[in-house]
Amino acid sequence: MPAPPITYSRRMTSSSSAARAAHNESVFRELNEQLGADTAGAPSDVRGFVCECADISCTTVLAVPLGEYGRVRRNPRRFIVAPADGHVVSSVEHVVERHAEYWVVEKLGASGDLAEELDPSS
Fold first, then answer.
1. What is the pLDDT of residues 16-62, one digit of tens each?
2. Cα–chain-centroid distance for residue 88?
3. Structural domain range at position 67
4. Which candidate among 11, 22, 67, 112 keeps its CA 20 to 30 Å from the CA of 91?
């Protein structure tokens, strides 16, 4: 059963809030990288990945094909999130792909720069 929708405000205007959001998303990305490492030799099928939204308390698990997750990860500014506006912080990121099971967001400006800095593969 999917997690309930996030009900707090997703507007972020200060640079410290944007930095916190980028950091939180990077924490989830690192977790997903570790989960994906165990399946590196597996066939390209669907895996469960933790939503990489800015909400550190989000526990939504997304069904994403392993190859698709790897493709998204090649761009350090991009993250997978649950397919709902409540998982997108429009002041620091925009949706670049919409799939039924997940969306891909790309960090903008300073948040994108920080996402690149925090990317474990950079």
1. 766 766 666 676 677 666 655 444 444 457 788 899 998 988 989 88
2. 9
3. 15-118
4. 67
The two tokens of residue 17 are: 């809030």
Q: Provide the number of structural domains found in the chain.
A: 1
| C-alpha–C-alpha distance, residues 84 and 80, integer Å | 11
Residue 84 lies inside a defined structural domain of this protein: yes
Residue 54 in any domain: the answer is: yes
What is the DSSP secondary structure assignment for residue 81, as one 8-state letter?
E
| pTM passes above 0.85 | no
CB contact at 8 A, 53 and 26: no
Q: How many CB atoms lie within 10 A of CB 12?
A: 19
pLDDT in tens, 52-95: 998 988 989 888 888 899 999 999 999 999 999 999 999 999 99
- For residue 41, is it within any domain? yes
Within a domain: 1: no
